[in-house]
Design brief:
By secondary structure, this protein is of the alpha/beta class. It is built from 15 helices and 15 strands. It is 41% helix and 21% strand.
């Protein structure tokens, strides 16, 4: 990578990050509402267009931004072969200035992770793998229509460790129909035993338009009861805490020093640039998003235009709402910062809305964060504050 003439384009050390959406999947999962395509044979053509989008971006901005995170999301980025990744990384190197200590993450499916590819991924700069395990229970994997087994998850983790990548994140899902507390305890025990540096654990969401939501509406599956859902969440917090994981965001847990630098940008309103169909960007209080229609994406690139579908300029009110929503889920709210930026005493607001403040919150000087109970009820708490 070209690290000469490294410079900071933004105040302090808050450099922007890059997100690259690789929308291809071999199979669309039962519960997934992310934009993805299954015609994997078009991957070569897609990569050609993706690198052109990066070049067009640089031409229009007429500056080489310094960055310190790159995140390959999807879809299934582990479908990229080393030649694809080399082409993309070379293009990024030509059009951005990469901080030498950058975090470069690639999402991977345990069923699609070649050992030889992994070695090349590491040589090309990938230093963090986010592995979509979801669960170590084969019956639940079948329900989710994942293409891998629990055995393949363990094999993939061993492959990642063997080539020397020491920053591994795994995704887990809880709240599945027919899931029991014992099932979940087993998943968490295995996750802790394998020593992943980072764990993201998400409550299953029944997104509109997914086969999962349709099955629920037809009565083919049932939601788990609220009492079990609560037990699953507190088991998650307690079990990972016992194994030295710090919960630094509602759904994210990390060993010390292994918090996701890239995802933290989203929660802290640090700029990021998105490439690929359906990707989002945030820069100078403006959020924009690319078209998810692949033919429109290709057409824009062919006409040397960025494939932006729309954008919105965030008002001061928008920024305040997002700050409450994002930061209360993560490190918490700094009352002095909010007072200075928005002229609102958020600590006073919280005390007025929640007379029994210690039931949900931890107040440490000017920092307002939520305790375990507050984290479980975070959506209701945020709505109460904003209303």
């Amino acid at each position: 990578m070209n690290n000469q003439n490294f410079k900071i384009n933004f105040n302090g050390d808050k450099l922007p990050g890059l997100y690259l959406h690789i929308p291809f999947c071999i199979h669309k999962c039962f519960y997934c509402d992310f934009f993805s395509l299954t015609n994997v044979q078009d991957l070569d053509y897609f990569v050609q267009n993706l690198v052109q989008e990066i070049i067009i971006f640089k031409e229009l901005h007429n500056i080489k931004y310094a960055i310190d995170t790159i995140y390959f999301g999807g879809g299934t980025p582990s479908l990229l072969n080393p030649k694809h990744l080399e082409t993309i990384m070379r293009t990024l190197d030509d059009n951005f200035i990469l901080n030498p200590s950058s975090e470069i993450t690639l999402e991977a499916n345990p069923g699609i992770l070649e050992s030889l590819y992994l070695q090349d991924y590491k040589k090309l700069g990938i230093n963090r793998i986010s592995l979509g395990v979801q669960t170590f229970d084969d019956n639940q994997l079948k329900f989710l229509q994942r293409i891998h087994t629990s055995e393949q998850s363990i094999e993939a983790i061993n492959k990642i460790r063997k080539i020397g990548i020491d920053n591994l994140s795994i995704d887990l899902i809880y709240g599945l129909p027919n899931q029991t507390l014992e099932n979940w305890k087993t998943d968490l025990s295995i996750a802790a035993q394998i020593g992943a540096e980072h764990i993201s654990a998400y409550n299953l969401i029944y997104e509109d338009g997914t086969p999962l939501k349709k099955a629920l509406q037809k009565g083919k599956i049932k939601l788990i009861d609220e009492e079990l859902e609560e037990k699953l969440y507190f088991e998650l917090i307690n079990r990972l805490s016992e194994n030295q994981y710090v919960q630094y965001e509602i759904s994210n847990f990390a060993k010390k020093g292994f918090e996701s630098k890239h995802n933290s940008k989203y929660w802290e309103h640090i700029p990021y640039f998105g490439f690929g169909p359906s990707s989002h960007s945030f820069f100078k209080n403006t959020r924009s998003w690319n078209t998810k229609k692949i033919n429109n994406y290709y057409s824009s690139i062919e006409n040397r235009k960025l494939p932006i579908e729309n954008k919105e300029i965030l008002t001061k009110s928008d920024l305040f709402i997002e700050k409450i929503m994002l930061q209360l889920r993560a490190k918490g709210l700094n009352n002095n910062e909010i007072l200075k930026e928005f002229d609102i005493d958020i600590l006073k607001v919280v005390k007025e809305k929640f007379p029994e403040i210690n039931e949900y919150f931890i107040i440490n000087g000017n920092l307002i964060s939520v305790n375990a109970k507050g984290k479980y009820l975070i959506n209701e708490i945020i709505l109460t504050i904003l209303n």
